[in-house]
Amino acid sequence: MEIWVNPACSKCRSAVKLLDEAGADYTVRRYLEDPPDAGELRAVLDRLGLEPWDITRTQEAVAGELGIAGWPREPAERERWIAALAAHPRLIQRPIITADDGSASVARNEDAVRDAIVRGR
């Protein structure tokens, strides 16, 4: 299991604490320091069953600079969104947990983290 975190994020710290309390076997990826490339993002999106606009933090300053709020949310624009996430990892929703069973989740609450723990065993 792997968890993508920003250590400054309280939801990320809470998720890591839950993983530790459960004795989960996982690795931490500080995705701002080690950003995923476009291929990794595509793979995680497939595992999540989501589109890039579903995991984009539109309130970030860089989102405003890019004008993301006005970008179309349609298949023809998917690669544009993925490129933006790869170039500006701060835009990626967090934390994301990828489980060993091939699934993934945006683990912003305890239930999502606990579900990932079960899937990761």
From TrEMBL:
<comment type="similarity">
    <text>Belongs to the ArsC family.</text>
</comment>
<protein>
    <submittedName>
        <fullName>Arsenate reductase family protein</fullName>
    </submittedName>
</protein>
<dbReference type="Pfam" id="PF03960">
    <property type="entry name" value="ArsC"/>
</dbReference>
<dbReference type="InterPro" id="IPR036249">
    <property type="entry name" value="Thioredoxin-like_sf"/>
</dbReference>
<dbReference type="InterPro" id="IPR006660">
    <property type="entry name" value="Arsenate_reductase-like"/>
</dbReference>
